[in-house]
Amino acid sequence: MLRFISFGSGTSGNCYFLYTDTSSVLIDAGVGLRVLKRKFLSYGLDFRMIRNILITHDHADHVKSIGSLSGDYHIPVFATRKVHQGIVRNVSVRKKIPQAYIHVIEKDIPFTLGDFLITPFGVPHNSLENVGYIIEIGGVTFCLMTDVGSLTSEIKNAISRANYLVIEANYNLDMLQQGPYPDYMKKQIMSDTGHLSNENCGKAIAENASQGLRHVWLCHLSETNNTPAFACDDVKKVIEEYVKENPLRNFLLSLPVDALSRKIPSNIFELK
Q1: What is this structure's pTM?
Q2: Are 6 and 265 spatial neighbours (Cβ–Cβ below 8 Å)?
């Protein structure tokens, strides 16, 4: 049985865990190591279950614990060459990944970790490089993409393949435009290398999801410019409007859409 947990999703720290009885992968390590250990314990999970780590990009909220986690527990870290370079340069990552645990992967080149077949794909963002992951096992396809500046053909393809999708819905446009951020920051967030709005997230799902999509989780919600209720409502409204114009897509109306918490761990989701 494939299972999924979110241990944190947002600028406070991002960390996701995907596992079976025989294989596991942690995606991003932006949660403090002691906090993460306590969260594992609260689920009755053995911390030694973490066998591999995937990194999306080099920003601190995704990598601040990566050196300690990898070095202290002897866990290999998989990321593109540029992402590894970004981690080395990131002053927020005080303890770096030991050389023995650095593994370089390439966008669009599948590789295996245990029973998982993993394909990284490019995601536009204002980092040295950013990737999402398509993870396949036992006929189930799980897809995660965060910090999505704009929608590319690779991203649309990944959404179309997903049975389970974790996708960014960072901001409600009105909240961002009327909020306290300075203009330059608002422009960066809305740029093609910034973040994905609730509306554009809904559009991405509406236009590209297949009938095989079983659940969507919205990730990396802004604390200032979004709420879980706004994110889910905005995405669902876009989907509903799209279905009115494209009635053959009415299967989307029964699609479960939930928002992942910034700091509170999710349930353990069973992905069948």
Answers
A1: 0.97
A2: yes
Show the tokens assigned to 89.
């340069």
- Sequence length of the chain is 272
| Residue 148 near residue 168, CB atoms below 8 Å | yes
Q: Does residue 112 contact residue 125 with C-beta atoms inside 8 Å?
A: no
What was the pLDDT predicted at 220? 98
Strand order in the sheet with 77-80: 102-105, 77-80, 53-54, 24-27, 15-19, 2-8, 269-271
Q: Which one-letter DSSP state was computed for residue 97?
A: P
Exposure string over 169-187, b if 16+ CB within 10 A, otherwise e: bbbbeeebeeeebeeeebe
SS3 19: strand
One-character DSSP codes across 49-79: G---EE-SB-SHHHHTTHHHHHHHHT--EEE
DSSP summary character for residue 16: E
Q: From CA 32, how far away is CA 51, in angstroms rounded?
A: 18
Q: How far is CA 105 from the centre of its chain?
A: 18
Percent of the chain with pLDDT over 90: 100
Exposed (0-12), middle (13-18) or buried (19+): which is 51, by Cβ within 10 Å? Answer: middle
Distance of CA 206 to the CA centre of its chain: 19
- Contact (Cβ atoms closer than 8 angstroms) between residue 247 and residue 206: no
The model's pLDDT over 61-113, given as tens digits with 9 standing for 90+, comes to 999 999 999 999 999 999 999 999 999 999 999 999 999 999 999 999 999 99
pLDDT digits (tens, 9 = 90+) for 152-195: 999 999 999 999 999 999 999 999 999 999 999 999 999 999 99
